[in-house]
Design a protein that fits this description.
alpha+beta; 16% helix; 4-stranded antiparallel beta sheet; Immunoglobulin-like; 3 helices
Length: 158
């Protein structure tokens, strides 16, 4: 960002600033570029700008499986499943059509072990796009989760 004078660390913004003063780049008019890309590329309306993680929270003995999709237009189905000590606790499907974030608050005790699965599918074709799997146990809570960020809940009862 500092080297190129970019306003953010987003890929598009960085690339714009990296190349804006290069003289041998061919710039195409917007309409012509749009028409050519429509003829040349098969484009889905998701670019996989996504984030899956497990976050600690400010609520005692609780963690949050969390995912975020940052596309203005999207068409994915996210299947979320949560297992506690090998028992299915929760199963939800989320139809993602635009920017969104979703989390689940999961209470835990030191002896518990959890598996969190996310299966990501194309919303229209049901084609499998990706799978994410997390294992959360006492060791993960003590050594890893604090590196993931934090979900701060407001208005918690005292």
């Amino acid at each position: 960002m500092n080297l190129w004078g970019a306003e953010s660390n987003g890929y598009e913004n960085l690339m714009y600033h990296a190349y804006k003063n290069v003289s041998n780049i061919h710039w195409e008019e917007k309409e012509k570029f749009k028409n050519q890309t429509n003829l040349t590329f098969i484009h889905k309306d998701y670019s996989r700008v996504e984030y899956f993680t497990i976050l600690p929270t400010n609520k005692l003995n609780t963690f949050a499986p969390y995912f975020q999709m940052s596309n203005s237009n999207d068409s994915r189905l996210v299947k979320y499943t949560l297992y506690k000590n090998n028992e299915l606790i929760s199963s939800k499907n989320y139809e993602i059509t635009n920017k969104t974030y979703i989390y689940d608050l999961v209470p835990y005790e030191e002896k518990d072990e959890f598996e969190i699965h996310y299966q990501v599918l194309d919303l229209n074709t049901n084609k499998h796009l990706s799978t994410k799997k997390f294992t959360v146990n006492n060791q993960y809570i003590k050594t890893q989760i604090q590196n993931n960020g934090k979900l701060t809940l407001k208005n918690l009862p005292s």
